[in-house]
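Hey, can you fold this one?
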Amino acid sequence: MGCLAQGKLCTIWPMSPSKRIIRPIGQPTRGKTALNRLRQVDIYIALTRSACLIGISPLVVDVGYGAQAWTAIEMWERWLPFNPNLRLLGLEIDPERVAAAQPYAQPGVLGFRLGGFNLTDVLGGEKATIIRAYNVLRQYEEEAVTDALYKMGQALVIRGILIEGTSTPSGNIVAFDVYEKVTNDALVHRELVFGTNFRQLVTPVHFQAILPKRLIHHMQDEGPAAFFEAWQQALRLAKGMGQTGQRQQWQLAAHFLHQRFGYPVDIRRRILRRGYMGIQASLLP
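Sure. Predicted structure:
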């Protein structure tokens, strides 16, 4: 069952600011975003959650797109082949960033607005099928994360997804959580995803520095510590079986994590060979 946008084609959210002043909830990010930094995140969603891109005219929201509009535009362009009626709204809490993005706007399909976590205020009565808040919550206190996720989740359709995570500045490695809205008031954590483009030597330790905010301060807790130790062991096993290529080691280590250590890893070949490893359960503190 897919995520279907409600409403008529390209008529729902206002592309120009409303007369009612809406105070964005949140704080400005550093906003330094390189071209193609979030390519891996976009491709993973296309591979695994394309149902959220179909429908009459689904709405995707990019929260905190940064000083430049690149990552929002790139996401929209990557997903357009799935649905030429896909709409994207980029939100920023900094008015200067919103103004700088306006030359790239396309009425009815690609827009940029002032806004923060309070998406329901910005969108009015519409709901999004996908919300991405990437490299945003990292700067917040851990206690603020749950409330921010809840506020954003209120603007999702049922079966819509919320993506929250962090990447290296180049985007060579990424780590992100995928949440799914299952009822009007409930977001369920579906998976924690690690991704690499294999352009540099990557070990499990590298991902510990870019974990989602809920985990970054809990690396010594039993759950996360046990997982990363198992991953290191799985990688050593892969190397011990003569695998010399990083891509092959990645795939075999994922299978060992699943088969020998019992972690619910997505072992589909088309996912692993692209450099993704999804864990289908929370590694909770």
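The chain has a mean pLDDT of 87. Let me know if you want another pass with a different chain boundary.
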